[in-house]
Specification:
Elements lengths: L2 H16 L6 H41 L4 H5 L3 E11 L2 E9 L4 H13 L13 E11 L3
Antiparallel strand pairs: 1-2, 1-3
Amino acid sequence: MCAAALQWVIQASARLVARRQLKCQCCFLVAMPATAAAAAQAQSKQSADLLDAYRSKVNAAIQAAVSCPLAAQNMGMSGQTKVHFDLTDGVQSNATVATTSKRPMLDSAALAAVQNARYPAPPKEFAGQKKTMSVLVVLNCAN
């Protein structure tokens, strides 16, 4: 803690003691880190909730972009392919198959869906940040 901040803490705690809102100055110094930790924890949870909501929108965009190859439709294929990729400001890069459907045609269609999806803009808190995503692409070509 810098000298100016420490001086402010001492003065603030002395004012609270003088107003009898605090028993002693040491209580103020002990309570401060707990309050800061609680604020940091709340901010972390809010950030995680925002990221979860964004991941849901990204997943929906990918599923909307799924296009089954004609051959897969004729054979009534279906499967799931897990794809990892990076996303920065709605721009996808580095897409790779993490878990194969064991059907190369479906894996290629899953990669194409990730590459062709129209991604939503990220929340402003994540603007300019690269986020690594992992999405399970569901392909049901039997219809």
